[in-house]
Structure formats: structure tokens, C-alpha cells
Amino acid sequence: MTRVALVDSGTGNLFSLREAFRREGLSVTVTTSGAAVRAARCLVLPGVASFPAVVRGISDTRRSILAAVADGVPVLGICAGMQILFESSEEGPGEGLGLFPGKVRALRADVVPHMGWSPLDARPDPWLQGLRGESMVYFAHSFAAPSEGAHVVATSDHGGPFAAAVRNGSVFGVQFHPEKSARVGRAVLRGFLKESGVIRSE
Prior knowledge:
alpha/beta, 8-stranded mixed sheet
């Protein structure tokens, strides 16, 4: 079976995410090992904590992640795992992976954090073509990437628009939690796996 590596930064919701990929028939490894990262068919960067905490948590695998991306290995960042794909964050110190330009910023809303279900406004991209009708997904965050840029393929709104999904080639990111987003979340994960060549398109 195809091997998916969940990079353990010490902050991720690993159990439900691992089960989401296993439901697609994939072999899943949870790892803090650079060797395992380099051996993976695709990488997933989870995070349910602050930007600085996730950056610290990947310090031992950072070089291996960047080397894998340079070799064309697909990577999906989720929540704070998406945020570290950018250069930096207002949340605190730490250097992101710099795979997308810009700085993650605090949500400007009356109620923060943004917790619960909100709709996606998806732009045309093969990754998200499996979404049908109104697409509600589950968020839990206080910071987000700006909604502008060619890499932004979906937005949502909480006190203003923000990037809900980003893509540049084989680098993908979602601010929401697909493993908690029912049918839509499964479609997003399957789209990632299809676009990455991990599973066949139907």
C-alpha cells in the first residue's frame, strides 16, 4: 500500500487524521524521523497549536520536508500545518517553510477563535472539483493567511475573507480540518490524493 507520512510536530490531531487516510486504503506512518519523511509517497503536516509551536515541532524534520518537496513529493498542510507553509506569522517567532509567500495574520473578528462550520468559496482547481453544492467545513483557528494571491484556491470569511485552501503544484494547504468536515472533508482529501497521483481518478 502507498505510504503516507504524518509528520508529528507534537501538536496534531493525529488519530482522526490517520483514520481518514486509512479509510482510503492507505498505509499511514506517524513520524518524527527525517528518513521516514524522505521515504514517504506523500506528506501531511498537521497542527492544532500555535505557529511557533509547530515550527519548533518540525525542527528535526525541516530539512527533510524541504528536500522532499524539492523532489516533487506532494505535501498537505492542515490548520497550523498550512500556516507554516508560509514565511512567518503574527502569532509569534519562528520561520515558516516559505513555500508560499507572505505572513499569517490574526483574524479581525468580534469573536475569536473561529470555531465551527463555515462555507468555502472555492475557485476553479482540479483538487476541489469533487465539491458539490454548498461546502461547509470545520474550522478552529485564530490566525489565517491573506485571501489574495494566485496560490489561493478557496476562501472563507470570519471578520473578513481569509485563505481557506492554497495550492502551488504539489504543495497543498487547508486552514480547516478535513478529518472533521464529513463528506466535504473526505472529498478534499480524496482530491489531494488524486492530484498527487496516490490514488487513481475515477
